[in-house]
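CO-FOLDING WORKSHEET

Operator: S.A.
Ligand of interest: adenosine-5'-triphosphate
Run index: 295
Mode: holo prediction, single chain
Checklist:
[x] sequence pasted
[x] SMILES validated
[ ] output reviewed
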Amino acid sequence: MEREAAAVVELRDIEFAYTKEDTVLKSVNLTVQQGEWIAVVGESGCGKSTLVRLLNALLQPQSGTVSVFGEKLTEHNAPLVRARIGMVFQNPDNQFIGETVEEDIAFGLEGLCLERAEMERRIEVYTGKLNISSLLLKHPGELSGGQKQRCAVAACLSMEPEIVVFDEATSMQDERSRRELLDVIRDMKEQGGYTIFSVTHDVDEMLAADRIVALQNGTIRADCAPTSFFENKEWLRDCGIELPFRLRLEQQLKARGIGQSEISKKLQQPGVKQAVEGGRVRDRLDESKREEKIE
Ligand SMILES: Nc1ncnc2c1ncn2[C@@H]1O[C@H](COP(=O)(O)OP(=O)(O)OP(=O)(O)O)[C@@H](O)[C@H]1O
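OUTPUT RECEIVED:
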């Protein structure tokens, strides 16, 4: 289903604070067109989750306006807007209602007043896409963190919302599942024209998006294509993002005067491909070491 491009989200002069002492978002302005995939990135605590929670009025700004689907968000239209926005959070435990995975997905669909056959079709399609068909009769408590996340994504997508917000929704996935999940998001975007926000620390997810919106201390530090973002060392440093191994390698090859098509060929050569995969795993290990240090 092709959807016509139009501004689907507009944030104007947003200021937001949880407490009087600390303003979390300052002078945030952002326009997002229908069908765009936005990766919201930045250091821990810079305001990413706060920003996306404004979109369905889970939080309300102290000043400025949030418009979604062309309408200013108010307490009156918030319930209608929420029905068109799907959100998947980092901690899936808080999102389960049903006694089994199937019941949980069906519970959300019942709210849409769908016919039984359509509910069954959606459950089959989305659990198939997320590779969780074998978990349908399990109790959510029996699932691993990664399986719970995939179930939460399936439940969200089965509602077929127009905007989908993934707030670190791939953080508990192993490497293969993370890539599979990214493929599902890519497919959604290509086939359905969904507008996607992904709050992420994952470089592959950033690279897959159309646009990076990078926050630093509650203001937008950069808003551009992923390639431009990863070329700017200052932005990367200020937003606490390390250049991934593959991009570091590409930049070194470019610096030696090797053209892009030649670089792409080289990266596909078996030995080089393995080294890149190894580098990706090392990058992840470095990431988890950093997280351990922070904890
Ligand atoms: N409910 C709350 N009450 C008070 N302060 C909060 C609350 N939620 C978040 N904050 C604070 O607001 C700031 C921004 O938090 P937010 O969760 O938006 O950051 P983030 O960029 O998503 O972080 P992370 O990458 O660690 O998830 C942080 O300083 C955080 O401590």
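REVIEW:
The two ends are 45 Å apart (CA to CA).
Residues 270-294 form the longest helix (25 residues).
[x] output reviewed
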